[in-house]
Specification:
The complex is a heterodimer of chains A (261) and B (342).
Chain A: H1 7-24, H2 26-51, H3 58-90, H4 94-97, H5 103-133, H6 144-168, H7 174-187, H8 202-207, H9 212-224, H10 233-259
Chain B: E1 3-14, E2 41-42, E3 48-59, E4 63-67, H1 74-81, E5 89-94, E6 97-98, H2 103-109, E7 110-113, H3 125-135, H4 140-153, H5 169-182, E8 187-191, H6 199-214, E9 218-223, H7 226-232, E10 235-240, E11 243-248, H8 250-256, E12 261-268, H9 271-279, E13 284-290, E14 293-298, H10 305-314, E15 318-325, H11 329-337
Parallel strand pairs in B: 4-9, 4-10, 7-8, 8-9
Antiparallel strand pairs in B: 1-3, 1-5, 2-3, 5-6, 10-11, 12-14, 12-15, 13-14
Helix pairs in contact in B: 3-4, 3-5, 4-5, 9-10
Chain lengths: 261, 342
């Protein structure tokens, strides 16, 4: 028995486990997390512009939004869904809860693994979007460090939100989670329209600020297509860091409550 | 001998469930599955006392059994000792480490076989063991060597690459034991390990446990099967309603059981009056009432039956059914609690 083996080694062992499982389930993972964004891009970014029902430039607004949606959705789902099942009935998580590390490390690993899955979905959707929608006006991939920063912050924030949701709901409420949390988040997440376009409707403009997806979508807009009016990148990053801290704080608290009664 | 486990005045009070709480998903394997332990005692302040001042001591190398009916506090005790349940008060030490303040050190020293197998279903059988090893800092190659050895030892070597769902209940249970042993823990905990197994799988598991004990491991097992406790354990704690009622070797405990034979009489009529009438008989050492039954203890066993029937009838009641029970852990349990087990 090795009394000294460090916490980081256990953390990476758990991460290795998640990567192995994710690799094995890659086709299902991509289907689950990118089908919806891909269909959105086909309809709004390809079909409607072709029919002349959408301005051709709309793809520039849509691409950052769809990217934000896919990374947020996949991060939140890849943490919350397995957690609900594993705490709720299969109890699979117990082997990790009984590993010789502080219980918070297990929660942290789940959030990190969720962040990686969010990033993966984003990195898959970006080139797919370009393929489906054709040349995107104003696309500035040269900003890659900033683009990547927003993607990491966005995925981490939604992964931590997944932790919070995963601890708070029971298996019977999964459907409710989609209809009552994820649904409104998508429609009011400034995904289909830039936030600055809400200037004409001030109530909405400020009300949507409680929605974390707004910051990811605006952050993607600010970095991918800077020529579209967007929220200041510093505000975006500040808000995401704040939300990440908030979700992590309450998420890990809920996790501890579930893990140790 | 060094002490593997020690608890002092351990108490666990679960908050009383709100009147209309819905959804039973908030429990873990090591916490009672219902919001309220079925037989838990109402504690002052409205909570439910699953454990009410439990003192236990288990030496290294013992096969120790926690015996009691459902809701006695067995699973809560295991939960506290394995760091998954926090005691309301009192102290518990496992392998010399405090479960509250040194939980990581405790987890490093214990192996746990849960009541219901909880393998990682995204991994195959051997991966379950290898990743478990990795969580305990064991290098992949070494973990693989140990894993194969354990799977062979438990007769599931040919299932190493199988998905967990392809294993039968008994095989999954053995996989859980292999997992619990992979990091060579000082103390092995098993929570009702044979519940849900068919008789054959149960006997196979008993063999495994006997062998592990012979190898010198400390084993702590909960069960509500008297026979299992009697056959396997070298020391037993009988718990009920969160309290320790007796603790000794099965042989000594059986010697504590009152009388040589217990005669259970199911009464149609006033059980208290019938019991009072039976108490006047010569040779009857004790009579308890567990309406509609009365439980009479007698040295001469069956010979007293006619006299007991007459005594009951004299009290104005009638005997509907009679059962004889040899001295056993069960009769001890019944004499300690006035209730039957299970």
């Amino acid at each position: 028995m090795n009394d000294q083996h460090p916490t980081t080694a256990v953390f990476f062992a758990m991460l290795r486990r998640d990567i192995r499982v994710a690799r094995r389930e890659l086709p299902f993972f991509l289907l689950r997390t990118t089908l919806q964004p891909l269909m959105l891009m086909i309809v709004f970014g390809y079909l409607l512009p072709k029919m002349g029902m959408m301005q051709a430039g709309y793809t520039s607004t849509l691409l950052p939004g769809v990217l934000a949606l896919s990374l947020a959705l996949s991060a939140v789902q890849s943490v919350a869904l397995p957690m609900v099942a594993q705490f709720g009935f299969s109890k699979e998580i117990e082997d990790r809860l009984l590993a010789p590390v502080p219980t918070r490390i297990v929660a942290l690993e789940l959030v990190v693994a969720g962040t990686l899955q969010g990033l993966m979905a984003g990195l898959f959707v970006l080139p797919a979007g370009r393929l489906i929608m054709g040349p995107i006006q104003g696309l500035a991939l040269g900003n890659f460090p900033e683009i990547f920063l927003v993607m990491v912050l966005g995925a981490a924030t939604f992964s931590a939100l997944g932790l919070l949701i995963g601890c708070a709901i029971s298996p019977q409420q999964i459907g409710l989670m989609f209809s009552s949390i994820i649904g409104p988040m998508i429609f009011f997440g400034c995904m289909y329209y830039p936030w600055r376009a809400l200037d004409k409707i001030p109530i909405m403009k400020y009300a949507v600020l409680v929605n974390p997806l707004v910051y990811v979508a605006e952050g993607m807009r600010a970095t991918l297509i800077p020529e579209i009016p967007h929220m200041d990148l510093r505000v975006v990053c500040g808000a995401l860091v704040f939300l990440l801290a908030l979700f992590w704080h309450f998420g890990q608290r809920g996790f501890m409550k579930r893990a140790i009664t | 001998m060094p002490t593997a486990i020690e608890t002092r005045a351990l108490r666990k009070i679960y908050p009383a469930p709100p009147a209309r709480k819905r959804g039973g998903a908030r429990t873990s394997t090591f916490a009672p599955r219902t919001a309220a332990p079925p037989q838990g005692v109402r504690a002052e302040g409205g909570g439910i006392a699953a454990l009410d001042g439990l003192d236990l001591s288990v030496e290294d190398g013992e096969f120790f059994g926690l015996l009691g009916p459902n809701g006695a506090g067995k699973t809560t005790t295991i939960g506290i000792l394995t760091t998954r349940v926090r005691a309301t008060s009192g102290e518990a030490f496992v392998a010399g480490k405090n479960v509250r303040t040194e939980d990581v050190a405790v987890r490093r020293r214990i192996g746990i076989v849960p009541q219901i197998p909880n393998p990682d279903r995204s991994l195959n059988a051997i991966e379950n063991l290898i990743f478990h090893g990795a969580y305990f800092g064991i290098a992949t190659r070494e973990a693989e060597r140990r894993a194969m050895g354990l799977l062979e030892q438990f007769d599931i070597g040919d299932k190493a690459q199988s998905k967990v769902e392809e294993l039968s209940g008994g095989q999954q249970q053995r996989l859980m034991i292999a997992r619990a042993l992979l990091h060579e823990p000082q103390v092995l905990f098993l929570d009702e390990p044979t519940v849900g197994l068919d008789p054959q799988a149960r006997l196979a598991l008993w063999d495994v446990l006997r062998r592990l004990h012979r190898e010198g491991r400390t084993i702590v097992m909960t069960t509500h099967y008297m026979q299992e406790a009697d056959e396997l354990c070298n020391r037993l704690a009988i718990v009920d309603q969160g309290r320790l009622l007796a603790c000794d070797s099965p042989t000594k405990l059986k010697a504590l059981a009152p009388g040589d034979t217990r005669i259970d009489l199911t009464i149609d009529g006033d059980a208290d009056a019938a019991a009072a009438s039976c108490r006047t008989l010569d040779g009857v050492t004790r009579v308890d009432v567990a309406a509609p039954d009365i439980l009479a203890y007698a040295a001469r066993g069956g010979e007293l039956i006619p006299a007991l029937i007459r005594a009951v009838e004299q009290s104005g009641a009638r005997v509907q059914n009679i059962n004889l029970a040899k001295p056993s852990l069960e009769s001890l349990f019944v004499s300690l609690t006035g209730r039957k087990l299970g």
